[in-house]
Amino acid sequence: MAPFRTWAGIALAGALTVSLAGCSGSGGKRAEDARKAAAAQGRSAVNTPRWTFAMITHSGDGDSFWDIVQNGAKQAAVKDNIDFLYSHDDEAQQQAQLVDAAVDKKVDGIIVTLAKPDALKAALARAEKAGIPVITVNSGSAESKKFGALTHVGQDESVAGEAVGDELNRRGKKKVLCVLHEQGNVGHEQRCAGVRKTFDGDVQDLYVNGTNMPDVQSAIEARLQSDASLDAVVTLGAPYADTAAKAKQDAGSKAEIDTFDLNAKVAAGLASGALGFAVDQQPYLQGYEAVDLLWLHKYNADVLGGGRPVLTGPQIVTKDDAATLEEYTKRGTR
Predict the structure, then answer these.
(1) Half-sphere exposure of residue 288, counting CA atoms within 13 Å on the CB side?
(2) Quick one: how far is CA 84 from the chain centroid?
(3) Nearest 5°: CA angle at 258, between 261 and 290?
């Protein structure tokens, strides 16, 4: 497999193997079996108190990306003897209320996304006043520190967009459609702005209603039909890549479909050539590290990042990487 082309250092590269400490070196299968057994039986690798951590995200219903984040968080919670609570709402005010509810429950730590940071500011101030440590994850790196969080775990969305622009240049593309599926999401705006910053050609934004896939497909198809000069489409989430590929086919377009984020369909699309490349921000690692860093803070007053985000991406992945990644996407860890 060709090496991943990485635009940012990945913090704590060995974090995913922590739960396997104490296993012998008799092979990967034994280590994997031990990991599965520990997860199934709820065995902790530590003897610290049974703390409760709450994760509250801006996810909508049925978003597979957040299933991967949760898989990482739950695995770390098993290892760290944590009672893990998960809730989500794609409406910012409702998400803020879920944070308030976690504060009222007097949880021991909060993990939260800041896709629409202004709406969460007051709720996070309540958490800080209550003495509850907070780690932001996935979105909101610019606001994390000033909102009182210990650190942020995720990728820098502007840097990720710039990496996409560089890759599109390398592929000789001239005109790109950047599809934004959630209006008001600052991270999405930063991604497309990053593409625009480094891409030598023209970048056009297309806003769609991400909760309605038929409408997303129709909107992309209409744009491709009306502008034959578009030679690439960049979607900002893995579920939208397959929809864009269908729109391309129906429009009779030759545009390359590329995407942010990874799932099993994206890995298969890379393998078949239906997709050009994907940008992986390693959501499993985001969930795992958020829980682990909260545990480290509770146990040992540790803080990582030195005031800067702990980066989990971006990684540009292509057809050369697909075979290995497909195995991991099927088990829900990539």
Answers:
(1) 23
(2) 19
(3) 10
